[in-house]
Amino acid sequence: MIHISILVPESSVLQAICDPQYLFSAVNSFLLTAGKPALFDVKLVGATREVKLSEGHFTVHADLLLDEVEHTDLIFVPALFGDMDAALAKNKALVPWIIKHYNLGAAVASLCLGAFLLADTGLLNGKKCSTHWLMANEFRRMFPTVELVDGHIITEEGRIYSSGGANSYWNLLLYLVEKYADRATAILAAKFFAIDIGRSSQSAFTIFQGQKMHGDEEVRQVQQHIEAHFTKKFTIDELADMVALGRRSFERRFKAATNNTVVEYVQRVKIEAAKRSLESGGKNVNEVMFDVGYGDTKAFREVFKKITGLTPVHYRNKYSKQRAFLQ
User: Fold this and answer.
1) Are 64 and 45 a contacting pair, CB within 8 Å?
2) Looking at the structure, do residues 200 and 259 belong to the same domain, yes or no?
3) What is the largest distance, in Å, between two alpha-carbon atoms of the chain?
4) What's the rounded Cα separation, in Å, for the pair 157 and 136?
5) Are 14 and 60 in contact (CB under 8 A)?
6) Where residue 19 sits, what CATH number does that domain have?
7) Is residue 141 assigned to a domain?
8) Is the model's pTM score more than 0.85?
9) Interval 78-103: pLDDT, tens
10) Which domain holds residue 134?
């Protein structure tokens, strides 16, 4: 029997507690129907017996208190909601408990913004992690020693798992079903819950917002210039001269402030503009390509796919307002 502990933190997302409980309970039902024994013992675990969520609209009853858990094999850290500093402050009691049971051999999995609470334990230091793309900059600010992996839905390192944003945590849940049960059971669960089991990237959902939560005013000036004039061509030397910096110093400071090289930042700004045009406009891919300052079809396609995980044509087919209407 695999013992699963789903934490019930303060300021957490109700669905991120209910969904893993529902999924692993459903898997037990699948197994029993097939004449096999149930595999998972699923418990909700809290620092208090009753935890109010969503501004008191819902109350979650914990099956066990922290000190009542003698052994667990897999811990889920659900997504948090609201101000992350405040949420972490409310859940300090969970941190030593997670560390204790990880050191006793349990695996730990964070769902979406649960990565903030997992990172607060220090267990992610020097390790890879994924979270919601919207909070990537905030995560890097708060946990600079964790390697945040952009675009990934699932990371796994040293019995620690994390998932991308929002509903992409379902892919991590299926991944763990396959790991602890088998592939056939994971596929059955994917079909039952209508989940694309093969999805491995959240890049297509990401909206690039830049990284301006830093104190380097010269870099911020260049970012604003790039975003205002992304259709034009400019060299790194020109951008460095604009803020009276040497090229090497400018490139180093830009990378440190934005987590992107200058070239990567320009590419992401251009591709974000191309995405918006493909989503809402009636232009074809070549017209969009020229509008954002690309003249080489192959280069545009390669950069677009590298950033979004989709070709421009596939992206347009997936998100175009006109195509959605026609369907």
Assistant:
1) yes
2) no
3) 73
4) 19
5) yes
6) 3.40.50.880
7) yes
8) no
9) 999 999 999 999 999 999 999 999 99
10) 2-205
In this structure, are 145 and 232 located in the same domain? Answer: no
Q: What stretch of H or E contains 189?
A: helix 183-193
Q: How far is Cα of residue 42 from the mean position of the Cα atoms in its chain?
A: 24
Paired residues of 6 in beta bridges = 44, 76
Q: Across residues 253-261, what is the average pLDDT?
A: 90
- Residues 73, 309: Cα–Cα separation, whole Å: 34
Q: Look at residues 173, 205, 237 and tell me which one is the last residue of a structural domain.
A: 205
- In the beta sheet, which residues pair with residue 152? 201
Cα separation of 184 and 187, whole Å? 5
The Cα–Cα gap between 250 and 261 comes to 10
Residue 196 DSSP SS3: coil
Which of these, 175, 105, 289, lies nearest to 164 by C-alpha position?
Answer: 175
Q: What are the tens digits of pLDDT across the range 6-56?
A: 999 999 999 999 999 999 999 999 999 999 999 999 999 999 999 999 888
Looking at residues 207-234, what average pLDDT do you find?
85
- The one-letter amino acid code at 234 reads F
Last residue of a domain, one of 172, 205, 238: 205
Looking at the structure of the chain, the number of domains it has is: 2
